[in-house]
Each structure stands twice: as structure tokens, then as C-alpha cells.
Design goal:
90 residues; alpha+beta; 2 domains; 2 helices; 6 strands; 36% strand; globular
């Protein structure tokens, strides 16, 4: 099944597919697509607001199979940003 997201004229998002549904319900927060292993269970991080200008994250258990730890996701994100930085010239 193909996932798709469409911005409608009412100023909101509609979509179909499991990934798009999760992203739309969390205001397109990519952390919901990154399940991680912690204490032997799978979790995803969900933003619950802001405190002192920084996002407040809450770890929610999930039934998704996770293969990476949270630290592994951080290392992947840092590597992607570092690799893309030379191309982001303005």
C-alpha cells in the first residue's frame, strides 16, 4: 500500500497509510517512526510540549519491533546531518 499525505484547503492534512497516519497525528514528528529498545521493550519518543524552549519527550511503549537503541538513532541522525552539511550552502 502506498502512503500519501495531502494538504487540504481547510488548512489541515489528510492521508492514508500507517506511517502517514502516525505522522499526521503527531504533527509530523519523525520520532514516532524510530522505535528503540530500552529495558528490553520497544518504545517511541513523543513530544508532550516545551519547557524552557526545549521539547519535553515522553517514552511510550509500542508493539513495533525495534532493533536499535536510542543512542544508535542519535548517531545515525548526526551522521546524516554531517554528510548533508556541505551541500546546505546558502
Amino acid at each position: 500500500m502506498l502512503d500519501c499525505a495531502i494538504y487540504n484547503s481547510d488548512g489541515g492534512w489528510n492521508g492514508s497509510g500507517d506511517v502517514v497516519s502516525r505522522l499526521v497525528s503527531t504533527n509530523f514528528d519523525p520520532r514516532v517512526c524510530r522505535p528503540f529498545i530500552w529495558n528490553g521493550r520497544s518504545y517511541v519518543s513523543v513530544q508532550k510540549g516545551y519547557k524552557d524552549g526545549k521539547p519535553v519527550l515522553h517514552n511510550v511503549p509500542t508493539m513495533n519491533a525495534a532493533t536499535l537503541r536510542k543512542e544508535d538513532w542519535v548517531m545515525i541522525d548526526q551522521a546524516v546531518v554531517q554528510a548533508s552539511r556541505p551541500r546546505l550552502g546558502a
